[in-house]
Amino acid sequence: MTRPTTTSTPLDTALFRVGAIAARSLIGGVFMGLANLVPGISGGTMLLTVGIYPQFISGVAEVSTLKFRPTVLLMLTCVVGAAGLAIGGFAGVIGSLLDQHQWAMYCLFIGLTLGGAPLLWRMLRPVDDRVLTSAAIAVAVMALLALTDPERIGSQTTPGLAAYAMLTVAGFSGGAAMILPGLSGAYLLLVLGQYRAIIDAVEMATSGARAGDWALALQALHVLVPVAIGVGLGVVGVSNLVSRLLANYERATLGFLLGLLCGAVIGLWPFNEPVTPQMGDIVRGIALTTADLVAAVDPEDYRTVAVMPSVTQGLGGSALTLLGFTVSWGVSRVGR
After folding, report:
1. Which of 159, 151, 179, 166 is nearest to 36 (CA)?
2. Cβ contact 12:62 at 8 Å
3. Are 16 and 24 within 8 A, CB to CB?
């Protein structure tokens, strides 16, 4: 006699104990917030690595239809709250670490990213042609994205309708990227020329609040409010789309997400060196047509090229990648 088979959907929060989903949501929210501060790292990838991604996007889609379940609200509150605290508390720290130890940070995040692959692989077994095709397409998309040069785009942050519209578009793109694993919100902000302005505004707001300088904190709202509106629209819109795809084409969609996750590391080679700009180069949307313009370029805006690591960097990077992998893989097993 053949035993009946049962299937379950990864979207249902009822599959988790309340404590387990709260723990995953808090940790995933922190990882998501930190990832959104780093160009090239996807916040959605971090949720995927800790095993909360399908529940998060279905929860956002559910709440957008004005349906409120306590477990879903708990999960969303934990993710959003932890992500907000991580962004507000670590914007300055992450910026400093990226300036001083970029290769180490990228190695750590590569490990954190890849640590989610075993979880998706378990969900997809046995792997078929549909899954492999979806994953291959996603890897190709990430490879093409890695070829994009964000440093040729300028920014516009002077208060005004055009600036507010651009910031809202940037926020929408960043919100959509937060939901799509492998697509970095910070990287898209770089492509749109808004990354530095938004990071500076976050740091200005938090610094002003800590010092009690509310005038300084409120000044940052010219940037943060339109960005927040765009992020909300992007998160809700893309969550509904991905939730429908998971509900109707689960294996193909999860295969595509696995490809996005694995392909995300293509553009994250951690070992790079800055290249001094030359006459005729374009930096942040400005053509360097004179020697004065070349000399005025901030070293933070120098283009970088990939190089081979030293022995110390290779060993240290491998250790940090393994550490990141172990952490995210361990978190993905909480409440299994």
Report:
1. 179
2. no
3. yes
Provide the 8-state DSSP code for 13.
G
pTM above 0.70, yes or no: no
Computed on alpha carbons and rounded to an integer, the radius of gyration of the chain in Å comes to 21
In the numeric block, the tokens 């005004």 are attached to 160
Tokens for 88?
């507000």
The structure tokens listed for 177 are: 């990227």
Q: Note the pLDDT tens digit of each residue in 211-268.
A: 787 777 788 888 888 888 998 888 888 888 888 888 888 888 888 888 877 887 777 7
DSSP, residue by residue, 147-213: T--GGG-----SSSHHHHHHHHHHHHHHHHHHHSTT--HHHHHHHTT-HHHHHHHHHHHHHHHHHT-
How far apart CA 169 and CA 180 sit, in angstroms, is 16
Cα distance from N-terminal residue to C-terminal residue, the chain: 30
| pLDDT per residue as tens digits for the range 170-215 | 888 878 877 776 566 766 676 566 777 787 788 888 888 877 877 7
User: How many Å apart are CA 81 and CA 79, to the nearest integer?
Assistant: 6
List the helix and strand counts (H, then E) for the chain.
14, 4
Q: How far does CA 156 lie from the centroid of its chain?
A: 23
HEC-encoded secondary structure of 239-251: HHHHHHHHHHCHH
Tokens for 263, please give them. 């392909």
Rounded distance between C-alpha atoms, residue 34 and residue 310, angstroms: 27
Alpha helices (H) along 36-160: 43-49, 53-64, 70-114, 117-124, 129-146
